[in-house]
Design a protein that fits this description.
With about 160 residues, the chain is mostly helical. The chain has a domain at about 1-80. Helix content is about 80%, strand content about 0%. α2 (about 40-80) runs parallel beside α3 (about 100-160).
Length: about 160
């Protein structure tokens, strides 16, 4: 999943770079009288340098983004498997501000906390229910034994009368 996203982001940046280079080279092709035949190598070299630099930065940026998304996917799989322990920490806003990945991270952290609280509450209710069930079983046993004693007593009274 993350490699596909990384490639899509890198491809997007490459398309932006190619478009900007083509736009910057339009004067060279439209106004050939301003440039001599051998001076076109300079603008083309600059264009290819721009493409290379943009491609390197897009790969670095896309890896950074997909690494964060991969960590979120791993934690989500852990939650699905029942691991409600940590795994993620909230991050403060970076120089670039908060983005959608940061919001998703915060949502996963909040979901994990809520699920942990819910499971804890269910455990407490289950323990109380188990305790009450044992109490009811004890009470039912006492009532049953007293009813048995009463039945024996009634039987003896019936025989004696």
């Amino acid at each position: 999943m993350s490699r596909k996203l990384s490639r899509k982001i890198a491809f997007g940046y490459l398309m932006i770079a190619l478009t900007s280079v083509l736009i910057s080279l339009v004067p060279v092709w439209v106004l050939p009288n301003l440039y001599h035949q051998y001076e076109i190598a300079g603008p083309l070299g600059v264009g290819f340098s721009i493409i290379t630099i943009t491609l390197v930065f897009s790969i670095l940026f896309s890896r950074m983004m997909t690494r964060q998304l991969g960590a979120l996917a791993d934690v989500s799989r852990g939650i699905a498997a029942g691991n409600l322990g940590g795994g993620l920490e909230a991050r403060s806003a970076s120089l670039m501000g908060r983005d959608e990945v940061d919001e998703l991270r915060d949502a996963v952290i909040e979901m994990q906390k809520s699920l942990r609280q819910l499971v804890g509450d269910l455990h407490n209710v289950s323990s109380k229910l188990s305790s009450e069930s044992r109490l009811l079983t004890t009470f039912a046993d006492e009532v049953s034994s007293e009813v048995g004693e009463m039945a024996v007593t009634f039987e003896q009274v019936n025989k004696g009368s």
